[in-house]
Amino acid sequence: MSPVNDEASARIRRLASMPLQPVGGVTSGSRGVWSPIANVVGRSELLSLLVRRDLKARYKDSALGFFWSLVRPLLQLAIYFVVMGQFLQAAKGIPDFAVYVFAGLTAMGLFTEIVVGGTGSIVANAGLVKKVYLPREVFPLASVGSALFNFAIQMVVLLGATFLVGQPPIHWQFFYVIPALLVLLAYGTAFALLLGAINVYLRDMQYLAEVGTMLLFWASPVVYSWQMVSELVTNPVALEIYTNNPLTLAVLGFQQAFWVAGESVEQPDALLLRLLIALVIGVVLLLVSHRVFLRLQGNFAQEL
Question: pTM (2 decimals)?
Answer without folding.
Answer: 0.83
